[in-house]
Structures are given as structure tokens and as C-alpha cells.
Amino acid sequence: xxxxxxxxxxxxxxxxxxxxxxxxxxxxxxxxxxxxxxxxxxxxxxxxxxxxxxxxxxxxxxxxxxxxxxxxxxxxxxxxxxxxxxxxxxxxxxxxxxxxxxxxxxxxxxxxxxxxxxxxxxxxxxxxxxxxxxxxxxxxxxxxxxxxxxxxxxxxxxxxxxxxxxxxxxxxxxxxxxxxxxxxxxxxxxxxxxxxxxxxxxxxxxxxxxxxxxxxxxxxxxxxxxxxxxxxxxxxxxxxxxxxxxxxxxxxxxxxxxxxxxxxxxxxxxxxxxxxxxxxxxxxxxxxxxxxxxxxxxxxxxxxxxxxxxxxxxxxxxxxxxxxxxxxxxxxxxxxxxxxxxxxxxxxxxxxxxxxxxxxxxxxxxxxxxxxxxxxxxxxxxxxxxxxxxxxxxxxxxxxxxxxxxxxxxxxxxxxxxxxxxxxxxxxxxxxxxxxxxxxxxxxxxxxxxxxxxxxxxxxxxxxxxxxxxxxxxxxxxxxxxxxxxxxxxxxxxxxxxxxxxxxxxxxxxxxxxxxxxxxxxxxxxxxxxxxxxxxxxxxxxxxx
Length: 545
Ligand code: G6Q
Known about the structure:
Layout: H1 13-25, H2 30-36, H3 40-43, E1 45-48, E2 51-54, H4 62-74, H5 77-85, H6 100-103, E3 112-113, E4 116-117, H7 119-138, E5 151-155, H8 162-170, E6 180-184, H9 189-196, E7 204-209, H10 216-233, H11 239-242, E8 243-247, H12 250-256, E9 263-265, H13 282-288, H14 290-309, H15 316-330, E10 335-340, H16 348-360, E11 378-380, H17 392-397, E12 404-409, H18 419-436, H19 440-445, H20 453-456, E13 464-469, H21 474-495, H22 503-520, H23 531-543
Parallel strand pairs: 5-6, 5-7, 7-8, 8-9, 10-11, 10-12, 12-13
Antiparallel strand pairs: 1-2, 2-13, 3-4
Helix pairs in contact: 1-4, 4-15, 7-13, 8-13, 8-16, 13-14, 14-21, 15-21, 16-21, 22-23
This protein binds glucose-6-phosphate (G6Q).
Glucose-6-phosphate binds next to loops.
């Protein structure tokens, strides 16, 4: 991220002005804002890449928005956006460009990294992926014994799992139902055992997806998968027909025994959590077909263009990012809920958790200083209406401020009876109730017993964004995912942190090694951990299998 000043972000005049403005906004209720300003809803609604965002039900005035836009300017957001799109090495702690936008660049224009256009490579891999996906889907690609492939299992974790797993669920209506596309990520053998239960190895193809091809979980699951196939088929040559790889590490792929001819490449400038449009999307392409995958890329690209070209005051990712800063940094919120009113998006919050929390879960600014303010929010959510019967109580009447994004669609893929009207009615009713609440007078007017009145009051003034598109399609899913990617980028710039590294994840990858040795040692090992960890190692050694 670029740094325009040596002041820490919360010392910028634009930031301190917002903190002062928060005092003026205390006591201002969304009821007042809507009553005093009939044009508010219309003014605070905008359309981009097939999506409509209504941000009128936020605790902001035009003044608040101007001040947030001033903060964006003061933090150099325009320069930062341009730097990302033009291939500058903005991932400075890893000295890499950040170019997931090149993966879905449909403009025909080159994207240069170190003086070289990356687009020919990007398009060549997409072409190979499409050829492979067609062959698997048509039955031309068979297993070792000549049987048709009926199940495709992606083995990968984190960024090599969550994006395609989320999208494969979201786009089920577009998928070939004769082909089962599954995902194994956890090193817990139960995941592998359950996902392969009932499958015939002769009809199963594995995609081993790992940027580094060294990740413990993925390598363990891949070795187990290879043994599962070879035990059944009894011939090492079967690997060629039952395993393909997605990686940046050709040597690692070869060492595993997969022919590099069956490897789909991507590049160091694609971050794991931003890799859905790269070869990491292969299981999704196999599920929905190359044409639908291309439509998804077009949706991503449309939102990329909107983000890169639209003035900030009408820029959807910029506004959503700034509203998040307002709540997390100025009004004291700690979490952010994402609530899709669509069952197919049931893994969307999980994908966003990684995207947002891995990117912006940082406490050191770009100058190496401990920040004096909060950064990434805790992101969470479940599809409505299920959440309404669970945790919404706390959002309505709890003590915490929880900004929420409500996501809905005008049309359902399953227009059964009045299900969809009821689903939509619930979405709208929730945002209305959260904003406007119910006053003591209204509760009393219902004839409520005086002792119960306080319990039945809803304060309201609980902020929400409402996002809607006509239908959940590859295109709208692409645009929605890009919207959140760019929102996360905006916030990273405002917080002056490195959004594209993940040292905490890297730490996790090495931490377990020493304990694994102790757990597996034949003789009683000398334990050099703290007392608690040593005791647990002994417990698992004594009681485990
Ligand atoms: C994503 C992270 C992380 C990564 C996984 C898998 O941005 O870097 O979640 O995707 O750790 O890594 P590999 O793809 O290298 O196996």
C-alpha cells in the first residue's frame, strides 16, 4: 500500500475529524434521518455490475460520507488502486505484484509485470483448463480402466479450497448433475473418508490444488488419495488418469508423481484467497463448464472496471469499505455480519472470512509500527432465514453494534409456490426492523403489560447494507466476489497495512511439525514445551491410536 504521510492513520486530520463527527451523530437515529430527508434512499442507492447497493440504512449523513471520502483521499486510495491494477509490487513484504484482476481481464489490453505482458499466459492456462473440463464432462477423459469419470475431488485447503468450494455450491443450478464435484481440505481423515465413501476409484479423478505444493494437509490428503486409487487399481500408471495438479511448483508436482503435462499453472502474483479465477477454479469449471466459468470471469471483470474507473462517491467497494471503517474504527463495532438470503450462498461467509480476516488481520502498519487503531473486523454470517431463528436476537436487542450486509435476489432458481416471496419479505422486514425498531409507545399501544414493555422495545438504529441482483448467476457471483475483494483492499489502504501477506498462516504451517515428531516418536520423547503442552502430548500418546 502506498504511504502518503508519516503520520499514523488515526493521526490524520481526516480521521480525527471523523472521531469528532461521531459525537454529533450520537443521538441521531435512522428514524430522524429518513424522516428529515425524503430523498435519502434514492440518493444512497447505486448500481454496478448487475448489483444494486442501498446504503441508506446506515448511520451516516452526507457530511459523514464526505468526511469518509476525504479520509480515502488522504490515505492515497486512488494511487493505491492504480498501483494494484498496473502490476506494481504492492505486496511489499513478499515483493510481489498483486494481479488477480489480470486473471479476469476481458478487455484485451495487456497487463505488464516487470515489462512482460502476463495475459498470453493467463489465456493459455484458461484454454487448457477449458479443454480438460470439456474432456472430463463429455466422458472423453476416462479413468485408467476406461470407465467414465463420475466424481471429481479437489484436494486443497485455504485459498486452494474455499473459493471454488463456495462457488461450486453457489452455482449448483449451472452444474452437470451427473458429475459429482467434491472438496477435501481438512487433514482430519474423516473428511477424506466421508467424501470418498461409496465412490469407485476407477471413476474418480483428483485435482491436487496447492500453490506451494508443500502444504501438510494437502500433501497428506493427496498421498492418501493416491494410495486409495492404487490399492483399488493396482497399477502405478493409474496416477496419470486419476490425478491432475494445480500449482506454481512444477518440481513438487513431478516429485509427487503427477506428469507436468497434467499440471495447470498459476503465478506468484496470485494470492491464495484471490485465486478463484486462476487454475484454482478448475473444479468449478469442471462442474459448471467453461462457458459459465467465462461468464463468471466477466462478472468479476465488470466489478473490477467499476472499482478502477468510478469516482469514489459512487464506487460500491469504496463506499462499503469506508462504511466499514466508520463502524469499526469510529463507532466501536467489532464484527461484521454477511447474511445472504439464498441457500446456495451458504459457504459465502466462510470464503469472506478468509478473504477479509487473512488480508486485514494485521497489527503492523506499512512502516513497521504497531497500529493504534483496530484493523480487520471479525466477519461472520449464515444464510437467512436460518440465522433469524438463531443469532439475530443479539443483532436486534444485544448490547453490541453489528453492521450487517443483507444479500438477496429478485428471482429464484427454484420458483416453488410462494417460497421466494416469503424469503424476500423476511430480508426486507429484518432490515426495516433493525433500522427503525419499535418504540415504547408502539409497544404500549399493542396493549403490552407494563412490566414487559422494556423487553419488547427494539431500539433500532442498527445499520445495514442491502445488496440485490436479479438472479444468482456466474456473472453476479463473480461481481459479488470482486466487490468484497475490493472492499477489503480499500480497508487495507485506509488502515495502512499489508493486505496481501499472511505470516500468521505461514506460522501455522511450521508450528505443528515439532509436536508431530513428539506424538509419533517410538520411544518416550524428551519434551521441551511448557507444562500444559507437555501434559497434552503425554495424554494423546497414551490414549491415541
Ligand atoms: C491464502 C493463504 C492460504 C493458502 C493455503 C494453501 O491466501 O495463503 O490460505 O491458500 O495455506 O496453500 P497452498 O495453496 O500453497 O497449499
